[in-house]
Amino acid sequence: MLILFGALGAATAAPPDCATCHRDIARGFARTAHANASRPATAESILGPFDAPANRLNTSKKGTYFVMERGEDGRFYQTGVDGSRGRKERFDLVIGSGRRGQSYLYWRDGLLFQLPVSYHAGTARWINSPGYEDGTVHFGRGIPPMCFGCHATRAEIEPAGRSVRYRREEMILGIGCAKCHGEMPAQHASGSGKPDGLKTCAACHAGLAEERPPAPDVHGDQAGLLRASRCFQKSRGLNCVTCHDVHRVQREPEAFNGRCVACHERTACTKQPDRASGCVGCHMPLEKSKLVEVQTYRSHRIAVYGRKK
Ligand code: HEC
Ligand code: HEC
Ligand code: HEC
Ligand code: HEC
Ligand code: HEC
Ligand code: HEC
Ligand code: HEC
Predict the structure, then answer these.
(1) Ligand nearest to the backbone CA of 224
(2) For ligand 7, what atom is nearest to the CA of residue 255?
């Protein structure tokens, strides 16, 4: 079972107690997208540029623009200018490892709000935060704990007067060991239990209920797509960890071909695939997301593509 608000964990990497014994796993894990899914904003974690002219984002409206700057206090700030009016807020937290993009949050009265400018990794540029209207300066979008259910190990809110606020001191950023493993008994050995390689993942990789489109989207719904594959339906035990080792960075699609031929003979494919193109390129192609239009994702519906239906 997934522990959405596990008690263990450190700011960005493995909790020290897991790392004491599982050293190699913890070291490899610290570099993964999960471990870095949310972090404090620092020179290292913010990927967008702060040097002119790349630190400025113009909008379609004349006189309305944003500037990203390093303050004299060594912290980072975002200023939105609309004619003669300006508003400046600090980068406090980063959401997104940066593989595709990052969004930034600032603290106000114990609550978190999104900054209007985000970072797009594909073009290495600042962009309007997704869903923000071009030509406007808007600092008011609150970030609910729901986001951290998938992007952090722990983030809870408590009542504060007539409002609520985050239990800021107890937040655990990044997706740590405990998020998937729960609280391991202090003494354990082989056979003490591993998380389920599909249910654990589907808690975060099955899309958002309120934005679920008629067909599973390649953004965030890998579980829905995998379940729609004949490979999944016709085999027993195919799940996410058949292909993924979440304890290390795995980015080369070719490296996954071995997983296909563990079940399929190389000769099963009438296309007589060569080494170079691999299985994944044709049967799990990159597809454009309908939810996040600027991005393409690896389709997890393993199938023959381009065939007439
Ligand atoms: C607590 C929510 C959560 C759980 C549980 C979870 N993931 Fe993720 N996963 C994410 C988020 C969020 C990202 C994107 C992180 C980022 O890039 O900022 C991600 C990214 C990934 C990536 C991309 C890695 C990369 O290098 O870019 C893979 C692969 C992945 N997850 C597989 C899995 C598998 C397999 C499981 C189950 C064993 C799993 N995830 C469980 C939330 C989760
Ligand atoms: C995104 C979910 C996720 C996170 C985060 C995660 N694990 Fe795992 N871990 C799994 C799953 C799923 C398995 C079972 C893999 C299998 O069945 O092959 C597993 C297996 C293991 C195993 C058993 C040996 C092995 O490789 O199969 C160890 C030890 C382990 N994890 C330690 C850790 C430590 C230490 C951390 C933090 C540094 C961590 N895990 C973070 C999901 C996760
Ligand atoms: C005192 C040392 C120690 C600590 C601390 C520790 N482990 Fe382990 N763990 C072991 C040993 C020893 C094994 C058995 C050999 C192996 O798989 O490496 C093991 C095995 C495991 C397994 C495999 C269980 C199975 O069914 O095969 C998982 C999963 C795991 N540990 C996760 C964790 C997580 C998560 C943490 C942190 C909360 C943690 N461990 C902390 C020593 C430790
Ligand atoms: C149900 C789990 C879930 C929730 C809730 C969720 N996300 Fe995500 N988010 C993901 C996953 C998974 C990814 C990685 C993309 C993928 O796997 O297709 C991601 C990616 C991202 C990214 C990086 C862009 C990208 O595509 O890589 C940002 C930024 C982000 N989410 C912000 C948010 C914010 C802000 C909220 C709250 C409004 C939120 N997320 C709520 C699961 C979730
Ligand atoms: C756990 C075993 C397993 C793995 C791993 C696996 N498959 Fe399959 N796959 C199957 C089974 C079983 C079928 C159904 C065969 C049938 O219908 O006779 C299938 C069907 C297919 C089909 C036909 C799909 C359709 O809609 O007609 C393709 C193409 C395919 N697999 C390619 C792949 C590729 C490429 C990979 C690696 C990315 C892969 N498979 C990984 C077991 C697996
Ligand atoms: C150049 C693109 C390409 C590559 C690379 C490729 N395939 Fe295929 N594969 C296809 C196409 C197209 C078909 C459908 C052929 C047809 O309908 O006659 C197919 C058919 C299949 C089928 C049979 C599906 C059915 O209808 O029963 C399987 C299984 C399969 N491929 C597995 C693989 C595996 C495993 C690899 C890697 C070793 C691979 N393919 C590499 C394009 C490719
Ligand atoms: C048959 C092998 C296979 C299985 C099973 C599989 N994946 Fe993947 N996955 C891949 C390949 C290949 C990639 C592309 C590698 C890359 O570019 O990072 C990938 C990429 C991803 C990514 C990064 C998405 C992107 O486009 O950047 C996420 C997230 C992910 N997988 C999650 C999952 C989850 C969750 C499951 C289980 C529901 C799962 N995968 C099952 C092969 C697989």
Answers:
(1) 7
(2) 12
- Which residue's CA is minimally distant from atom 14 of ligand 3? 189
How much is the pTM? 0.94
Best of 283, 301, 309 for a ligand 6 pocket test (most atoms within 8 Å of beta carbon): 283
Strand partners, 79: 67, 88
Each of the 309 residues of the chain gets a pLDDT tens digit; together they read 333 333 333 333 444 578 989 999 999 999 999 999 999 999 999 999 999 999 999 999 999 999 999 999 999 999 999 999 999 999 999 999 999 999 999 999 999 999 999 999 999 999 999 889 999 999 999 999 989 999 999 999 999 999 999 999 999 999 999 999 988 877 788 887 899 999 999 999 998 765 555 566 657 789 999 999 999 999 988 999 999 999 999 988 888 988 998 999 877 887 765 655 689 989 999 988 776 666 788 999 999 998 754
- DSSP letters along 12-39, please? SS--HHHHHH-HHHHHHHTTSTTTTSEE
How far, in Å, is the centroid of ligand 2 from the Cα of 11? 18
For the chain, the straight-line distance linking the first and the last C-alpha, in angstroms and rounded, comes to 39
| Rounded distance from Cα 239 to ligand 4 centre (Å) | 21
* Type and span of the H or E element at 180: helix 177-181
